Amino acid sequence: MTRPYLPLNALRAFEASARHLSFTRAAIELCVTQAAVSHQVKALEARLGVRLFQRLPRGLALTDEGLTLLPGLRASFDRIGHLLQRFDGGRVRQVLAVGVVGTFAAGWLLPRLAAFEEEHPFVDLRLSTNNNRVDLAAEGLDCAIRFGDGAWHGTEAVPLLEAPLAPLCTPALAARLRTPQDLAGERLLRSYRADEWPGWFAAAGCDCPPIRGPVFDSSWVMVEAALQGHGVALAPVLMFSRLLEQGQLVQPFPVGVGSGRYWLTWLKSRNPGPAQQAFTDWLLRQAGG
User: Fold this and answer.
1) First to last CA, the chain
2) Residue span of the structural domain in which 176 resides
3) For strand 94-101 and strand 123-130, is the pairing parallel, antiparallel, or unpaired?
4) Is 158 in the same domain as 268?
5) What is the C-alpha to C-alpha distance for residues 211 and 204, in angstroms, rounded to an integer?
6) What is the pLDDT of residues 160-172, one digit of tens each?
7) Which parts of 86-218 fold into alpha helices (H)?
8) Alpha helix (H) ranges present in 86-195?
């Protein structure tokens, strides 16, 4: 079956004219004459059997038919443009959609991301952050970095980093703390995992006081609350090394307790492509270093 002829030049002339509401300005953009643009638009109108513009004494106005055609056409040209961008540099860029726990993204991945992009310019990385709740299939993700024990149904899981939890707070608050028991007099910020503070106090060798602080679904937000003086966060120290080095945060006690680790996961039903394999290998090298 013969495919219908697609008048791309005429469609481009219409889109540019609709954007500028002027054949003259469209012609300047397309590096052709005003007569050529007008001719292309007339040919498209004849092809469709409708008028796309009202010709006014000063410029153009879209008809209802033109207004109907424009959004879909503009979106199509955008998709073509994005597709062609993947061929920059003489090699096809492969899109890799990765879901990342927000704390890991901000505290560990972002400072290293430029190195990955320089090493693997063919990978078009698309990052979406989450609070450790992710549905790979429903969200269209190739893989996801999450925190836990590695046991997620239907997924492959490769361990990346251990991330022991420890109390973190401002230097001013830390000055009031001499022993772990002193934490009983402070507001203890907590995650939705109820066993984390009891686990830390057990590792520190003392009883856990009643925990009445706010509950957060993101360690990054919890630590931001601690930075603003709202209490003591129990968070993965490794993800906040920059703030510790800058002196904005203090780890008042050396005791850390493990409640899981970060993993790279993907669906067992999907075989990793070259972009995902490159990202996996790079992550493992970085984590091992």
Assistant:
1) 58
2) 165-245
3) parallel
4) yes
5) 16
6) 999 899 999 999 9
7) 102-104, 110-119, 171-174, 196-204
8) 102-104, 110-119, 171-174
